[in-house]
């Protein structure tokens, strides 16, 4: 049986999908209290790792993506599919689930 090595450089999203590396969760609160793993909220900010070619229009042309590789983005809390590659966590989501580009 052949083994398949998957990493972020071998994954290419289709259509208007975006592959985002999830930022690390907050370790402690603003008051300085350390949070256990089960109390941490899923982060909503990440860095775009891969971008699909764009959604097809009715005439067959592709609509250009608004985000680029390397952009930091804010995305919907329950959007996308969580994927773990090695020690890194990613989320695969549609471009419409991205709320903003963070500077």
TrEMBL record:
GO terms for cellular component: cytoplasm. Belongs to the GroES chaperonin family. Pfam families: Cpn10. Heptamer of 7 subunits arranged in a ring. Interacts with the chaperonin GroEL. This is Co-chaperonin GroES. Its main location: cytoplasm. One of its GO terms (molecular function) is ATP binding. It comes from the Bacteria. Keywords: Chaperone, Cytoplasm. It is found in: Cytoplasm. Together with the chaperonin GroEL, plays an essential role in assisting protein folding. The GroEL-GroES system forms a nano-cage that allows encapsulation of the non-native substrate proteins and provides a physical environment optimized to promote and accelerate protein folding. GroES binds to the apical surface of the GroEL ring, thereby capping the opening of the GroEL channel. The keyword Chaperone applies. Gene3D superfamilies: GroES chaperonin.
